[in-house]
Write a structure and sequence with these properties.
Order of helices and strands of chain B: EEEEEEEEEEE
Strand content of chain A: over 45%
Structural class of chain B: mainly beta
Helix content of chain B: under 10%
Radius of gyration of chain B: 13 Å
Radius of gyration of chain A: 13 Å
Helix content of chain A: under 10%
Number of strands of chain B: 11
Shape of chain A: globular
Oligomer: heterodimer
Strand content of chain B: over 45%
Number of helices of chain B: 0
């Protein structure tokens, strides 16, 4: 049962434009959401997170939006840069046992 | 700061052999996750452990087993290796007791099955 879903396996955008990566979840027990970024041959690294009590968190070019009623979150990258090309994973934490669930990832390609 | 240590970094095995990968989490982290990333594929969750007990199970084959030891390090044992097991295996750790939210990943162990 995949509780965290990233329905777009890949996304391609032009440098300087906005990248929007989406994530949907089904479990109402998630209380914290995170985005990880992964380059080839490296382990994923933490990018940005948001608590379920908020609807937006911003860190430089990266903004995460949370829509609890729709059980949807998104990561916005503005402006996109070629160095942002990577696989992005959405993750969610279960509040009752702190276990983590990951989405399958979205491969972002930013073209110069 | 200490990170997640995985060993070996590279491993070459023949078909039908056995391989063991090790993961040493960040000190005081009580939770370990294992992921498998095949060539050209995205990482797939295999299994996780919390306080030495299996916490969650993903797409781990029956030929694979894993455990977390008293010092919280974890080992992934793979038997009857197949060509399709060639992949990068990532381990990640988390201090679940503190309610920490961010997994820290190791650099991965690359297994090649010939």
């Amino acid at each position: 049962d995949q509780q965290v879903k990233q329905n777009s396996p890949s996304l391609s955008v032009q440098e300087g434009r906005i990248s929007i990566l989406n994530c949907d979840y089904t479990n109402s027990m998630f209380d914290y959401f995170l985005w990880y970024k992964k380059y080839p041959a490296e382990g994923p690294t933490f990018l940005i997170s948001i608590s379920s009590i908020k609807d937006k968190n911003e860190d430089g070019r990266f903004t995460v939006f949370l829509n609890k009623s729709a059980k949807h979150l998104s990561l916005h990258i503005v402006p996109s840069q070629p160095g942002d090309s990577a696989v992005y994973f959405c993750a969610a934490r279960l509040y009752n046992n702190n276990d983590m669930r990951f989405g399958a990832g979205t491969r972002l390609t930013v073209k110069p | 700061a200490a990170g997640v240590i995985q060993s070996p970094r590279h491993l070459i095995k023949e078909k039908r052999e056995t391989a063991t990968l090790k993961c040493y989490p960040i000190p005081r982290h009580d939770t370990v996750y294992w992921y498998q990333q095949g060539p050209g594929q995205d990482p797939q969750f295999l299994i996780s452990f919390y306080e030495k007990m299996q916490s969650d199970k993903g797409s781990i084959p029956d030929r694979f087993s894993a455990q977390q030891f008293s010092d919280y390090h974890s080992e992934l044992n793979m038997s009857s290796l197949e060509l399709g097991d060639s992949a990068l295996y990532f381990c990640a750790s988390l201090d679940r007791k503190t309610g920490a939210n961010v997994l820290t990943f190791g650099a991965g162990s690359r297994l090649t099955v010939l």
